[in-house]
């Protein structure tokens, strides 16, 4: 029997980057997902972020509503419970979330499309601890992409100048406890694909995350304590002509024993720079991939945000 999501230790990256990239991408090719153990994101940074996350979501609804990011397509700040729906899904997900974006230099040309993140005054450590986690996951993602580049036969730094000012987003997710059963057909997160290049996910130890294998089976993604879940998004799929697939995934409602427990998970959606033209890699097309027309990261993002209801058509 195939063992899906066998953790790939990040220590291998330091010994042999190509071997790390191959192990990671072998898992991506099979399921679109991989689990990375021994990652180097500082535990203190993770803990401080989680503490600030819990404090923020515990604030009164009207306080959180001051940070509503709906005008900007939900790309920064707060999105209330019951707002986002997965593409093609009639029901909104049973979650609320916060988005922290990149802290750009004052004179950055990317400011025209990338808004600042609101500062949260009610939780003293919020701005600092979310920024620290954003930066740590940004760096971790850059290193993961070195492995991906080597696997694809590209120079190891190939992604560096294509993601260094990317519109990457740290999402703090809160799925509240479900003391009474949710209405028919609603789930914590409906089946969807991620839009970005890769996603680095912390906090998936609380069960519920599943990935749809191409055989049609939903696979439980149950990372060991302290591991990172990494998955390919649509932009990486498009770049690799489908060789590294953006796999459909969802978060199920808790089992009866776990209904009292909230779920806090933290995906970091790593994006390309907005002006990067996503053009399929010739090597992947030669491998038998299916090429789609080139599109800029910004145009692609807007197309997808309309589909999930965060930007009105
Ligand atoms: O909460 C999770 O484990 C996954 C969340 C997710 O897939 C998303 O927000 O895109
Ligand atoms: Fe997702």
TrEMBL record:
<dbReference type="InterPro" id="IPR005123">
    <property type="entry name" value="Oxoglu/Fe-dep_dioxygenase_dom"/>
</dbReference>
<keyword id="KW-0266">Ethylene biosynthesis</keyword>
<protein>
    <recommendedName>
        <fullName>2-oxoglutarate-dependent ethylene/succinate-forming enzyme</fullName>
        <ecNumber>1.13.12.19</ecNumber>
        <ecNumber>1.14.20.7</ecNumber>
    </recommendedName>
</protein>
<dbReference type="InterPro" id="IPR050231">
    <property type="entry name" value="Iron_ascorbate_oxido_reductase"/>
</dbReference>
<dbReference type="Pfam" id="PF14226">
    <property type="entry name" value="DIOX_N"/>
</dbReference>
<dbReference type="InterPro" id="IPR027443">
    <property type="entry name" value="IPNS-like_sf"/>
</dbReference>
<feature type="domain" description="Fe2OG dioxygenase">
    <location>
        <begin position="165"/>
        <end position="272"/>
    </location>
</feature>
<keyword id="KW-0479">Metal-binding</keyword>
<dbReference type="GO" id="GO:0009693">
    <property type="term" value="P:ethylene biosynthetic process"/>
</dbReference>
<comment type="similarity">
    <text>Belongs to the iron/ascorbate-dependent oxidoreductase family.</text>
</comment>
<dbReference type="GO" id="GO:0102276">
    <property type="term" value="F:2-oxoglutarate oxygenase/decarboxylase (ethylene-forming) activity"/>
</dbReference>
<dbReference type="GO" id="GO:0046872">
    <property type="term" value="F:metal ion binding"/>
</dbReference>
<keyword id="KW-0408">Iron</keyword>
<dbReference type="Pfam" id="PF03171">
    <property type="entry name" value="2OG-FeII_Oxy"/>
</dbReference>
<keyword id="KW-0560">Oxidoreductase</keyword>
<dbReference type="InterPro" id="IPR044861">
    <property type="entry name" value="IPNS-like_FE2OG_OXY"/>
</dbReference>
<dbReference type="InterPro" id="IPR026992">
    <property type="entry name" value="DIOX_N"/>
</dbReference>
<comment type="pathway">
    <text>Alkene biosynthesis; ethylene biosynthesis via 2-oxoglutarate.</text>
</comment>
């Amino acid at each position: 029997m195939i063992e899906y999501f066998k953790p790939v230790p990040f220590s291998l990256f330091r010994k042999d980057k190509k071997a790390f990239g191959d192990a990671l991408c072998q898992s991506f090719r099979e399921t679109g997902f991989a689990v990375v153990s021994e990652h180097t994101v500082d535990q203190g940074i993770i803990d401080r972020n989680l503490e600030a996350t819990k404090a923020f979501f515990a604030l009164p609804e009207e306080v959180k509503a001051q940070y509503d990011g709906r005008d900007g397509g939900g790309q920064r700040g707060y999105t209330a419970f019951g707002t986002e729906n997965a593409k093609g899904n009639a029901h909104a997900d049973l979650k609320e979330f916060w988005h922290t974006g990149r802290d750009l230099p004052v004179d950055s040309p990317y400011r025209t499309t990338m808004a600042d993140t609101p500062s949260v005054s009610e939780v003293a450590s919020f701005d600092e601890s979310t920024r620290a986690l954003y930066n740590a996951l940004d760096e971790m993602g850059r290193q993961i992409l070195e492995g991906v580049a080597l696997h694809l036969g590209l120079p190891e730094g190939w992604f560096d100048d294509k993601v260094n000012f990317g519109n990457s987003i740290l999402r703090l997710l809160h799925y509240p406890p479900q003391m009474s059963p949710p209405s028919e057909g609603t789930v914590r997160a409906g089946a969807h694909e991620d839009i970005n290049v890769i996603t680095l996910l912390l906090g998936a130890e609380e069960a519920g995350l599943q990935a749809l294998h191409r055989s049609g089976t939903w696979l439980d993604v149950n990372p060991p304590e302290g591991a990172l879940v990494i998955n390919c998004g649509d932009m990486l799929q498009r770049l690799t002509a489908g060789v590294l697939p953006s796999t459909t995934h969802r978060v199920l409602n808790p089992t009866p024993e776990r209904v009292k427990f909230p779920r806090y998970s933290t995906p970091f959606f790593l994006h390309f720079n907005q002006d990067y033209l996503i053009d399929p890699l010739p090597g992947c097309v030669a491998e038998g991939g299916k090429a789609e027309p080139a599109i800029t990261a910004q145009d692609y993002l807007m197309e997808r945000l309309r589909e999930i209801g965060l930007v009105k058509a």
